[in-house]
């Protein structure tokens, strides 16, 4: 059992329904102080709902959660003092400039005009927005807007930060820039709960990954452990007929390949490679059985593969 | 306690300042706020003015119609508060504000304060145009101050009811409908054509709806017309509108933000 000083964010059995539809079915989470937990899940799996409950914006139907040692339902004000939130939907003002946004939020934290100016300048600099500071946010690129949103969450220098899909919709370069900023925040001791749909992002940033599906945490572990469970690369083979497909499935299963995924519609077969030599072994088996392969594709695992793997195992 | 009040007042000022900045940076909203009072005034005086007689009051039409146009000019902009608030509640900003250490109701209240400022200015523009068109108020300094109080009360009341409406409806389109209701009221008052010329049921409505006593009170103050009980009726209507809509708006705001 953790104490509250070790665990910055702690959720136990959170449930939530909207109009009879169960969206969270008992979510348990623990984020150790100073670390980053990635909440990985597809669209509609309950990530935003979880974040909204933990940031006091929404009440859970049952279950409890503490953030910075304060109960989110009973002490929302104390929780708000300790946290910053970058919501999935943009929460900066398009009609104001970047500087005006940050000065407004600093002002609303009641830090005093001079201090607000100083912090604003510092944050603009730190998040690479110095040159765009006096332009309206409506002229910003997606990446700049995200960074401003993040800077706005850091105005009161919170110890705990919630980032809800911070890089969704960003181009690869902006995503990499944002990752750098997130790593810096982590290095300076901030505890971060980040939600994402990208396995790669979780892998890049997180000490631990919690996989959420259908409002339930279906796995939680260190990225390496999860990746080992999920397998490394995915091999997809296109075959010429349905008969070949089922034959190939039988041959590979007999050869010891578990976790095969057959897609009859596309006449494709997918398996997780355990090691580089696995590819040769699989092709040899098919060659031996005189099964012609039309197309070979290798790719890194995606969220879909994670779910296939985890739900097949359960 | 007094520092808490000072803090809240500071928050209100910041958020009202933000809302006013929005105004200044949205060219169409700015246009509407400046051009609309001018256009309505020109329309009434030059287009309708020749065809309308002012009945038993014996006033020139420009004099007769100015009070109602002042209410249209101020009321239309004030009614748009419903749109700003509705937009804020359905966008993402409200979540950011709710995680800040401020009282949530300051957010809609900021729009109301901005609306009052902007609507008083719009009314002043309309008055300036009226004077350019030959409107000659005979108000003393004290009467002028009362006119200001009345205009202020009117735009505050409209803004407060608009805030309620903006928190009640779930779409921006529905929020926009409020402006039409507000601009409709002065038309069917004693302000544009004398109520005595209207058919029975309409006349009954015109004589008892809130903008009629306000128009009459403005007329009395600006043009030395008899006040009658129009002043008291106006005060009662406006105070009631504010006192009733503020708590309901607060409840609606909580309903929108809790759960
Ligand atoms: N306020 C709401 N009312 C009704 N349904 C909602 C509401 N918020 C979220 N949902 C539903 O709950 C499910 C989970 O949503 P969400 O937590 O936003 O998922 P994610 O962030 O993982 O995409 C979705 O099916 C969504 O449609
Ligand atoms: Mg989401």
From TrEMBL, chain A:
SUPFAM superfamilies: P-loop containing nucleoside triphosphate hydrolases
Any one of the GO BP annotations: daunorubicin transport
Lineage: superkingdom: Bacteria
Subcellular location: Cell membrane
Gene3D superfamilies (alphabetical): P-loop containing nucleotide triphosphate hydrolases
Membrane topology qualifier: Peripheral membrane protein
Molecular-function GO term, any one: ATP hydrolysis activity
Pfam families, per the entry: ABC_tran
Key words, A-Z: Antibiotic resistance, ATP-binding, Cell membrane, Membrane, Nucleotide-binding, Translocase, Transport
Domain (ABC transporter): residue spans on this chain: 9-239
TM stretches of this protein: none
Family: Belongs to the ABC transporter superfamily. Drug exporter-1 (DrugE1) (TC 3.A.1.105) family.
Name of this protein: ABC-2 type transport system ATP-binding protein
Annotated source species: Nonomuraea dietziae
UniProtKB/TrEMBL annotation, chain B:
Membrane topology reported for the UniProt record: Multi-pass membrane protein
Molecular function via GO: ABC-type transporter activity
Recorded superkingdom: Bacteria
Transmembrane segments: 30-52, 64-85, 105-133, 145-168, 175-193, 232-253
Keyword line: Antibiotic resistance, Cell membrane, Membrane, Transmembrane, Transmembrane helix, Transport
GO BP terms, alphabetized: response to antibiotic
Start and end residues of each ABC transmembrane type-2 domain: 28-256
InterPro entries (alphabetical): ABC2_TM, ABC2_TM_bact-type, ABC_2_transport, Nod_factor_ABC_transporter
Family: Belongs to the ABC-2 integral membrane protein family.
Protein name (Swiss-Prot/TrEMBL): Transport permease protein
Organism: Nonomuraea dietziae
């Amino acid at each position: 059992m953790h104490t509250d000083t070790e665990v910055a964010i702690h959720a136990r059995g959170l449930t939530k329904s909207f109009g009879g539809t169960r969206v969270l079915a008992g979510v348990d989470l623990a984020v150790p102080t100073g670390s980053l937990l990635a909440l990985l899940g597809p669209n509609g799996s309950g990530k935003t709902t979880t974040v909204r409950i933990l940031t006091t914006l929404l009440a859970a139907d049952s279950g409890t959660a503490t953030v910075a040692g304060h109960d989110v339902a009973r002490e929302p004000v104390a929780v708000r003092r300790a946290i910053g939130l970058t919501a999935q939907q943009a929460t900066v003002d398009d009609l104001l400039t970047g500087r005006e946004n940050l000065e407004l939020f600093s002002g609303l934290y009641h830090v005093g005009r001079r201090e607000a100016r100083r912090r604003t300048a510092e944050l603009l600099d730190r998040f690479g927005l110095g040159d765009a500071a006096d332009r309206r946010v409506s002229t910003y690129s997606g990446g700049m807007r995200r960074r401003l949103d993040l800077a706005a969450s850091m105005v009161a220098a919170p110890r705990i930060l919630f980032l809800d899909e911070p890089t969704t919709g960003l181009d690869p370069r902006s995503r990499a820039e944002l990752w750098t900023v997130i790593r810096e925040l982590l290095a300076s001791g901030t505890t971060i709960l980040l939600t994402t749909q990208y396995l790669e992002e979780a892998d890049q940033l997180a000490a631990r990954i919690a996989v959420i599906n259908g409002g339930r945490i279906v796995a939680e572990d260190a990225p390496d452990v999860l990746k080992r469970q999920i397998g490394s690369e995915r091999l997809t083979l296109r075959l010429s007929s349905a008969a070949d497909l089922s034959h190939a499935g039988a041959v590979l299963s007999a050869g010891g390949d578990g976790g095969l995924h057959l897609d009859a519609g596309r006449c494709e077969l997918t398996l997780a490679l355990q090691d580089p030599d696995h590819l040769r072994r699989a092709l040899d088996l098919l060659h031996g059985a005189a099964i012609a392969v039309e197309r070979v594709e290798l790719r890194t695992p995606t969220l879909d593969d994670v779910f296939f793997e985890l739900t097949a195992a359960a | 306690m007094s520092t808490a009040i000072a803090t809240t007042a500071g928050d209100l000022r910041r958020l009202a300042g933000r809302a006013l900045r929005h105004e200044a940076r949205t060219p169409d909203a700015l246009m509407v706020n400046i051009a609309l009072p001018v256009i309505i005034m020109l329309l009434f005086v030059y287009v309708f003015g020749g065809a309308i007689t002012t009945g038993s009051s014996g006033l020139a039409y420009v004099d007769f119609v100015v009070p109602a146009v002042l209410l249209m000019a101020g009321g239309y902009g004030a009614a748009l508060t419903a749109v700003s608030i509705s937009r804020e509640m359905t966008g993402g900003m409200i979540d950011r504000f709710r995680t800040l250490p401020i009282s949530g109701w300051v957010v809609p209240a900021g729009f109301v304060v901005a609306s009052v400022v902007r609507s008083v200015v719009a009314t002043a523009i309309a008055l300036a145009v009226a004077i350019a068109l030959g409107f000659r108020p005979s108000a003393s300094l004290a009467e002028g101050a009362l006119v200001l109080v009345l205009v202020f009360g009117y735009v505050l009341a409209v803004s407060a009811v608009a805030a309620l409406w903006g928190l009640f409806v779930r779409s921006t389109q529905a929020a926009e409908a409020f402006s039409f209701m507000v601009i409709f009221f002065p038309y069917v008052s004693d302000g544009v054509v004398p109520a005595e010329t209207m058919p029975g049921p309409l006349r009954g409505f015109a004589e008892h709806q809130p903008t009629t006593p306000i128009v009459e009170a403005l007329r009395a103050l600006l043009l030395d017309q008899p006040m009658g009980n129009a002043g008291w009726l106006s005060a009662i209507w406006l105070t009631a509108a504010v006192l009733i809509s503020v708590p309901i708006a607060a409840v609606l705001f909580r309903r929108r933000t809790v759960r």
